[in-house]
Amino acid sequence: MYLENNPYVNSSGSYVKSPGISRITRDEREPLIKLTNVWKIYQMGEVEFAALKGIDLEIYEGEFLVVLGPSGSGKSTLMNLLGCLDIPSEGTVYLNSEDISELDESELARIRGQMIGFIFQSFNLIPTLSTEENVLLPLEFQEENREAARKKASYLLDIVGLSNKKKNLPSQLSGGQRQRVAIARSLAVNPPIILADEPTGNLDTKTGDYILKFLDGLHEREGKTIIIVTHDLDLVKYATRVVYIRDGEIEKIEERRKNGTEE
């Protein structure tokens, strides 16, 4: 059973806390990501459509942030900006104090490769590659030693409970197993930020809970910054902050405790 091999989830299904992580208050540090008056406008023929309207948001290292909104709210557009997959039409997005609009595509690719691990609802695995080869991909882009990369890929598949599926193709895996491969791949270069788009959207409740507890363990044990974009209100219980977005605007930002209650 994969829960037994998960260093972040114990046998009761709860995450394992690390005793040694210190937390610094947000007031004592600079934001990891900062959006200032951000607009994203798409041209549809002669009509302009504003997917994001004047977004101001600061995200700090070590947060578990949930961006919550219905379909068409602009949350996926926001995710693309947070992940350096797109740049704003107006306003500024800073990552580590760098204005991403000032960077060329190779520099954006470097940031994505080194700083951000992506987890997508549709998994985005390459169907002709084995699970091990899918996890190896980010390491090969970093030009890591092949033998060391294989050992790391094997370790990551082990901690997500798939050490016996290394040679399987994605088509031979269940949806939950494919999502665990996607998580292993997202951790390959040990990025400080994990950005997840509807990570439980295609999963049953039990598997979805496992995935979220695993991400929660990464947050609690390693202090990773977790950003989840979702329409699912149930995910709020894992958040330290929740950003509510609707019609391209932030309605409110809510501080929360990790048991799901508002502070």
UniProtKB/TrEMBL annotation:
CDD domains recorded = ABC_MJ0796_LolCDE_FtsE (cd03255)
Give the matching InterPro entries: AAA+_ATPase, ABC_transporter-like_ATP-bd, ABC_transporter-like_CS, ABC_transpr_LolD-like, MacB-like_ATP-bd, P-loop_NTPase
Transmembrane spans? none
The ABC transporter domain covers which part of the protein?
33-263
Q: Which GO terms describe its molecular function?
A: ATP binding; ATP hydrolysis activity; transmembrane transporter activity
Cellular-component GO terms for this entry? membrane protein complex; plasma membrane
Q: Which UniProt keywords apply?
A: ATP-binding, Nucleotide-binding, Transport
The entry's protein name is ABC transporter, ATP-binding protein
